[in-house]
Queue: 4 jobs
Job 1
Amino acid sequence: MRLVIAALLLLSALSGCSEGETSEPQAADAVLRIHEVVREVDSADVEPSSKSNAIVGSDGDFVEIGPVRLTEAEVESAEPQRFGSGWAVEVEFTEAGGKKFGDLNRDASCSGEPAHAIAFIVDGEVLSLPRLAVDCPQVIDETVIAGDFTEESAADLARRIS
């Protein structure tokens, strides 16, 4: 079963980084981190609710993210695909990654917080803050990231995720 996540491609520098992340893109392989969005916040100056959390933002939207839940090691593949009249990115996870993504999905959709979102961060850059389109406690272990993508931007996102 696939979860369709409505997402905007958010391509601005990370305003706050978790430990080990950097706001500078890497020349070598991309470093993917997927986090649960804990809550929406007003600015980058808001204090995280936990020491293991960070405030990140893009295009004036700021959120508090929890610790890293998945990395590029759990992604089997990411491919651009036609989606309705536009483009999307289909992400397939390894067996272990599918379980982790399912758990993340359940936790985010059942959190009771208004965010109900996850954060895709590559090389310290917020790529996408998709809202989940799944009801609690449904568990989904693969995803399609849909949004306002062109063929080129979907291919770029897929390349950076996988």
Job 2
Amino acid sequence: SAAADFITRDNTLSVSGSVLGVSEGTPVFINVMNGSNVAATLTGSVGENGNFTTNTSGVLASLGAAGTEYTFLASVTDANGNIVTDSFDVTVDRATTEATVGLASGSNSGATNDGITNDTTPDFSGFAEAGATVDVFLNGDLIGTTVAGNNGAYTLTFAEADIIPLTDGTYTLSTISTDVAGNIKPSAQGTSFTVDTLAPEVASITAADTSLNV
């Protein structure tokens, strides 16, 4: 994940930092809180330059695609007994969701969600975990990359995709989703759609004159 987003898929964590105004060797204590429960306690000591690094925690649990948020509560006591505290939150995220994909609604020219279109330059859309990067593949070839919005929705337009207008036939879309923590999830199976630009043949109808006798 990004360096400052405090989201990580690493579930064994240590903390580094610095403290001013305390002597070398002063202990640093950090409680790792899961709600009101202490999930781990990390310790370190202040070096001559004021920096410290704690030991590494045991395995921290991560539930679901959103992960689990922990609060790190740090405390240091100086020589006069004054306690300095600081805190920050970290989300441990070890899973993500599969990104769906299909024809965008404006590109499905037939019945709703029937996967049949006469549009040879279709747009594609779907849903993934919010903020996830989605690689979209057509018949196994990467055709573009986009990012899901805050609601999880994403669109890859034909103009953005690395493809030429499609000929009539059936195609398969698939995805690989990478969330902000770095978890990767390929789609389990592809989504098929058909391009059909041929108008149906109209059968000829011949009317014959008939007589009706009463």
Job 3
Amino acid sequence: MPFGEHSGRRARLRSYPLLAVTSSRTLSARLTDGLSSAIAQPDHTAHDRKGSAVTHPNRLPGERVEPVASLPFVIFHFVPLLAIFTGIGWHDWMILLVTYWVRVFFITAGYHRYFGHRSYKTSRWFQFVLAFGGSMAVQKGPLWWAGNHRLHHRFSDTVQDAHSPIKGVFFSHVGWILATRADPTPEDVISDFAKFPELRFLNRHDWIGPWLLAVLCLWWGGWSGLVVGFFLSTVMTWHATFLVNSLAHLWGTRRYATADSSRNNFLIALLVMGEGWHNNHHHLQSSCRQGFKWWEIDMSYYVLRVLSWVRIVHDLKAPNPTAMRTALIKDGAYDIGMFRYHWDKATTRVASATQRTDLTDTRVRFSQLADETLAAAEELGRQTRRDPAVATAAADDDDGGRRRRGGRAARARLICCAPGVSHAEALTHRDALIMSPLGGSFLVSPPTAPEM
């Protein structure tokens, strides 16, 4: 099993080589598999590729904010202050609204729902429009964005999840982008789109879209149009979409017992055109529509529906009705995602506070018990995911099946114990009149096939 599929506690063990080596033979096989690389390369468990100490126990090597490389990103946030000198007019606010909402749509409907999840289909020319429009949001190229997002869903809220809140709220919001580990494009998970040369070109030259938009804003509104319509709008677009990675895993409600900490948040849904229904999305990732209720506003989906009327897009995937009835917390599904989240926080603090060498055996035992507890919670979550009506019907069927099997076995035993009638002879008749050894007769319907 890959290391990233295990809980964040494994990263903590990797951060403490002594515990990793000592416990490698005593922890469960599931934990030991995750520790193999730590035992083989103990120096890399506590330091990143540049030799700096990893400050958070759930972060992997390379997941450290690089101060020098982050300077352009930080300076970008102060450029809108130049509006003090350029002034701001209504024209500039109009440019800001247009550039904000258009780019949010290209990120949510394009980068996310199309490239990330293929939740609808479109032509190759509009696919390029979606990719180019998304690149104008200054969030790197479409392959990089969608590839990292697919990894997020594959490893949600584990140490392999690049922007999970278990690595810190700031890191999940923006820090992960400023770390060296997030630099490469994970082309192995986005190969279905990496085959298009125009998308690879945009991914390599992701600066073209932002520069073109900046020039258009300057042409349209002058210096104030550039400062407000491009720089301020970009900062707003960044942090509105980043909220889905951070706050949408910390604040809101949970309808479904997903394996992560995703939440539904009405405010974030308004800011990013429907992406705030994050718990819905993690439950049904392939659905183009993320607002499942009539009141769950999903503007990206509404725009895509309009585009489907003129055949620009088509085959929008609807949420599966059966799946929408499963794993409902209100129906008793055990919320394994929130258990994992809080369990990880608790075990992180315990592991960080008990690094004395004389506590090695106790730490090993604690890890074993933690594994057993998590396994029991996961099994409870698995058993409570089904739709209660379906689960009840299945239980009734199972109970009825046991009764039928028991009845067939009893009839078979009755047939076999009857004097003068063999089991084979009884099976040749639709009904058989069997004489009981104790006297009297019984009319039985033999089983369709031998149960013995």
Job 4
Amino acid sequence: KEDEIKKMQADAEMHAAEDAKKKEMVDMKNSAEMLIYSAEKALKDNDAAISQEIKDSVNAKVAALRAEKDNASATEESLKKATEELSTEMSKIGEAMQKAQAAQTPPQGEQNAGADEPKVHDAETEEGK
């Protein structure tokens, strides 16, 4: 019985590094899936504010990352590279959103014109006699 336990412990120690690599790969694939979801949601939610060029570019990177994630022979390096490329493209969505928001918001000076000056009203009062 003790021999079996020792054998199992030795096997576990032998495969610890391999298991850690598998766990890392699973974590990277989960992160990739979350990034894909975020990219698709950002495109859908902000469709009108994003140029077709950015949409096409982000969709291409989404497809590349999805293919890499689903590839059984994918390496950590290839998955990391595809994830970084999609992240870079997603930053363009943020830039497009900022430009669209800036175009809709009037400059600060025009927005509050005259709001800083208090309005003065003359009032007549009756004093008791």
